[in-house]
Amino acid sequence: MKKRIRKIFISMLFIYAGFCFAEPIVYTSTDEVQLLNGNYEPALLLDKNVSVYARNVYGADVGKSPEGELLCRIVYNGINYVADASKFVPKETKCVFDEDIISSALKNEKKALISKNYVDLLFSQDRDSVSKIEPYGYEQYNAYKTEFDYEWFLEVHEFNPSYIFNVVIGLHTIFGYYSFYVLDIEKEADGYKISAVIEKYWDATTIPQQVSVKKQTLTLTVDGDYLTIRSDEKTYGTFVIVSETLLSQGTSLLQNNTCDLSKVTWPRHADGTCDYEDGGKSAAESSVRKPAPATEHAEPAEEAALPEAAESENSNEEAESADADAKQNAALPILPIVVGGAALVIQLAVILFAAKKKKYEKK
Q1: Model pLDDT, residue 177
Q2: How far apart are CA 155 and CA 18, in angstroms?
Q3: To 10 degrees, the CA torsion angle through 295, 296, 297, 299?
Q4: By C-alpha distance, which of 70, 2, 13, 1 is closest to 36?
Q5: Can you tell me the distance from the alpha carbon of 347 to that of 95, in angstroms, rounded to the nearest whole number?
Q6: What span, in angstroms and rounded, lies between the C-alpha atoms of 48 and 240?
Q7: Nearest to 163, CA basis, from 109, 107, 217
Q8: Nearest to 310 by CA among 87, 82, 1
Q9: Burial (Cβ within 10 Å: 0-12, 13-18, ≥19) of residue 327
Q10: What span, in angstroms and rounded, lies between the C-alpha atoms of 345 and 285?
């Protein structure tokens, strides 16, 4: 466990250094949005078409409010906030994702996006089959596990959702995690081409473990309930849209190694086929997501128009106000990033010291 903490600690240092010198990532609000402070209390109402900075020195992940609202971290006027992740788009993006794959919309439909590996695990009806589904991650977890650590299924304890928003993407496999800052989105016939800054801070599928902060071009292919994300370098994984019922059976499998597949509606491809033919509900009972016609991918939806187009509909006074806000944010200090990163480094150092102390006391 100590080696694992040391590895994460060193990785965080590299990520922190990369972000200190990285070009700022700018979002634009698509509507009025309530900014929350660190206690998730309302702090400021942000106007539409105002530019803010992305804020995160350790991953472009999505947080949750106590009410379960999915949030992204931002900086506005030099102050750190969290806010509804669905209310922002990258400032320079050409278009946006279709609503039916945005995580907040899925949540409203009582659905979620999870790694296909989780579904394969549930279909096996045996949590021990994880050693075949994600063998390297399983091997690494047990290699670093000490007598003070939980078994992997108690550590994971649920099927961890992945997230897709126009500004951030977070992908969970059983043992791995990738995070992405989205810079630009282009629609294609079968999905999207995405320009993104990628933080790969825990890769449980390849050797060696590595951390990198760099810009890449991703391809997101949509096939019914299946979404596959890859770059020129590697495939990050296939993820599927599933119901809350499937998630609850997954939790039962992890905690008790039991599940009831008769309650499960399996994900399906755009042509209606299913990778899980045995168990679960029949094809007639399953709701298959139809792919959007190719013509719909040529132009973004009117309500999700670019910030520049929306600004033209505002009065001159509103446009000047938005422009003033954008200029003010152009000079936002990097102090919150530096301070936040330093605090993170200190916290990790404390954890490493505590682990070492515990081992000493045991002796």
Answers
A1: 86
A2: 29
A3: 100
A4: 70
A5: 39
A6: 32
A7: 107
A8: 87
A9: exposed
A10: 51
Are the C-beta atoms of 181 and 60 separated by less than 8 Å? yes
- The residue type of 165 is F
Beta-carbon contacts of 6 under 8 Å, excluding residues fewer than 6 positions away, are 352
Helix/strand/coil (H/E/C) assignment for every residue in the chain: CHHHHHHHHHHHHHHHHHHHCCCCCEEEECCCEEEECCCCCEEEEECCCCEEEECCCCCCCCEECCCCCEEEEEEECCEEEEEEHHHEEECCCCCCCCHHHCHHHHHHCCEEEEEHHHHHHHHHCCHHHHHHHCHHHHHHHHHHCCCCCCCHHHHHCCCCCEEECCCEEEEECCCCEEEEEEEEEEEECCEEEEEEEEEEEECCCCCCCCCCEEEEEEEEEEECCEEEEECCCCEEEEEEEEEHHHHHHHHHHHHHCCCCHHHCCCCCCCCCCCCCCCCCCCHHHCCCCCCCCHHHHCCCCHHHCCHHHHHHCCCHHHHHHHHHHHHHHHCCCCHHHHHHHHHHHHHHHHHHHHHHHHHHHHC
Largest CA distance in the chain: 72
Tokens encoding 61? 């992940």
CA distance 77 to 326: 10
What is the identity of the amino acid at 328? Q
CA distances from 355 to 58, 67, 139, 359 (A): 21, 33, 22, 6
Mean pLDDT for each 10-residue chunk of the chain (363 residues)? 50 47 81 91 94 67 67 89 92 94 91 96 96 91 88 90 92 88 94 86 56 80 96 89 96 95 95 79 42 40 37 43 44 42 52 50 47
Q: Which residues pair with 23 in a beta bridge?
A: none
Task: Please name the amino acid found at residue 1.
Answer: M
Q: Tokens 């490493």 correspond to what residue? A: 352
